[in-house]
Amino acid sequence: MRVIDTLAEMQQQADQWRREGLRIGFVPTMGYFHEGHLALMRHARTLADKTVISIFVNPTQFGPNEDFEAYPRDMDRDLELARGVGVDVVFAPTVDQMYPPGFQTYVQVEEVTRPLCGRSRPGHFRGVATVVAKLFQVVKPHVAVFGQKDYQQLLTIRRMVEDLAMDVQVVGHPIVREADGLAMSSRNTYLSEEDRRDALLLSRSLEEARRLVSKGERNGEVILGAVRRILASGPRVRIDYAELRDAETLEPVQHLEGPTLLALAAHVGRARLIDNTVLEP
Amino acid sequence: MRVIDTLAEMQQQADQWRREGLRIGFVPTMGYFHEGHLALMRHARTLADKTVISIFVNPTQFGPNEDFEAYPRDMDRDLELARGVGVDVVFAPTVDQMYPPGFQTYVQVEEVTRPLCGRSRPGHFRGVATVVAKLFQVVKPHVAVFGQKDYQQLLTIRRMVEDLAMDVQVVGHPIVREADGLAMSSRNTYLSEEDRRDALLLSRSLEEARRLVSKGERNGEVILGAVRRILASGPRVRIDYAELRDAETLEPVQHLEGPTLLALAAHVGRARLIDNTVLEP
Predict the structure, then answer these.
(1) What quaternary structure, including any partners, is listed in this protein's UniProt entry (chains A, B) (predicted)?
(2) B59 DSSP assignment
(3) Is A259 in a helix, a strand, or coil?
(4) 3-state secondary structure of A265
(5) CATH 3.20.20.70 fits B186-279, yes or no
(6) Does an H or E element contain A125, and which?
(7) What gap in Å lies between CA A122 and CA A114, rounded to an integer?
(8) What CATH class does B2-173 carry?
(9) CA distance to partner chain A, nearest, from residue B80 (Å)
(10) Residue of A nearest to B106 (CA)
(11) What tens digit of pLDDT does each residue of B49-98 get?
């Protein structure tokens, strides 16, 4: 496994593979790996000849009062885990490589970045789209794999790739959960034992919504009412949003007809957690 | 010479050339060719094995009260001229191909797009950066040639390419002028005979500025005063801006020390013309 920390070397490696006719799979990450990351890497390996992952805690997707500094990092452990999965290249650029002095170019995806986390975290998706656009120029992947836990991020990347005709296949991977249902997240490390019990209410409320829909419920208010009641039963849970939206356009949904995203964000202790499911009426 | 009108075919052609180890040169244009365009194409041919030009009047770089509809077009003549220069592919997508329903992704370069034409034409450079970013994803050039008449556009593209690590070499080409000094432009076709006489004052004022600097003048106000006097001598000239700016950052310049852009925009008759020179004190 090769570790590359400059853009030029990464582009050279990608060019060489492409000249040899090899297919490049890519998983961009912010590191501090859990089973969710490793599942994306394993999936990328099945789709490509060479697998590149990036580890880069991207400052432009954090707000001024968010956890950029505190975000957990453990490069040695990450490299060990990536090696174990059979990754070919870990691309780990510095902030200065990615954002040199004078940097002033941003990629903005509009409609799909406005609601949900876009409203709670202004500028977040501009940072995400910009860094992924840049990583794509450097890693030159044929296929890139993103987790569906960050559903709005996945939609944003899909739109960017389609709108700018980036020649990359974007693949979503189902949410990977702990045995008890908690969606895996590097930010779960922020949870105390008591926080963690309450954090389970997110996935539990999604289950309840799926149960209601499977029993024929189509009224959005009824479904969200049940979700909010479950979340409110946890004293450590502070809801940021709980919304139903069209699974492709993210337009609000009152009455379920097609595939509908149920998206949650909540502060639990000092962590801000997100989770979601696509309801199929 | 092949004419391609879909993104997918263009990407396939580019991929094939790249697999064969061929170097792709690219000149993006809005068509209605003059000698300036042809000079860019000839230059691109010297830098690459295969030369692609695009012809696309890009709606997103025109303001609501600008000349998108009126912009001159003559595809048959353009194809003839491109063939004469030895272009390999003319890529001429439709507006629907470039901006399909639901399109919502834009590339924004910040500081260098704020002054000059960025102030007169809000959104213009966002449209330029977006369409060029997309064309680069489709044509996959190794090198792209832009005219220096659109100096701020060239700087914007350079910044975008550097900031997003696009693997494209951006080459500027000197302004091509008519025998009498008028910078070539597709919009010169808007000029009446009387307009055209006054339009000459743009290049003439640039000459005067160069003469002053060569004689040792370094005071920006003195230089701009002379420029404005010359422009004001044309009754059909309405100055949009005449400014001195750092040739790389576009920061305002009062006293000339390094390479300094003297940039002009003026309405002459119903045409809005631009011209510039880099003063080297």
Answers:
(1) Homodimer.
(2) G
(3) coil
(4) strand
(5) no
(6) helix A124-139
(7) 9
(8) alpha beta
(9) 28
(10) A108
(11) 999 999 999 999 999 999 999 999 999 999 999 999 999 999 999 999 99
Annotated binding-site residues of B for (R)-pantoate read 61, 153
How far is it, in rounded angstroms, from Cα A106 to Cα B137? 16
Interchain contact, A104 vs B109, CB within 8 Å: yes
Run of H or E residues at A7: helix A7-19
For residue B224, give every residue at least 6 positions away whose Cβ sits within 8 Å of its Cβ, in sequence order, or none.
B242, B243, B244
Among partner residues B137, B138, B165, which is closest to A134 by beta-carbon distance?
B165
- A130 contacts B164? CB cut-off 8 A: yes
Residue A225, SS3 per DSSP: helix
Region A186-276: CATH code: 3.30.1300.10
Compute the distance between CA of residue A207 and CA of residue B40 in angstroms, rounded to an integer: 61
Cα gap A177→A201, rounded to integer Å: 13
Residues A134-175 have pLDDT tens digits of 999 999 999 999 999 999 999 999 999 999 999 999 999 999
* Cα separation, A187 vs A206, whole angstroms: 20
Q: Which two tokens stand for residue A145?
A: 């794999």
The two tokens of residue B236 are 């059909």
Task: Give B126 to chain A, closest Cα distance, Å.
Answer: 10
For A180-227, the pLDDT digits (tens) are 999 999 999 999 999 999 999 999 999 999 999 999 999 999 999 999
Whether residue A163 and residue B133 make contact (CB cut-off 8 A), yes or no, is: no
Question: Per-domain residue ranges for chain B?
Answer: 2-173, 186-279
Contact B133 A164 (CB under 8 A): yes
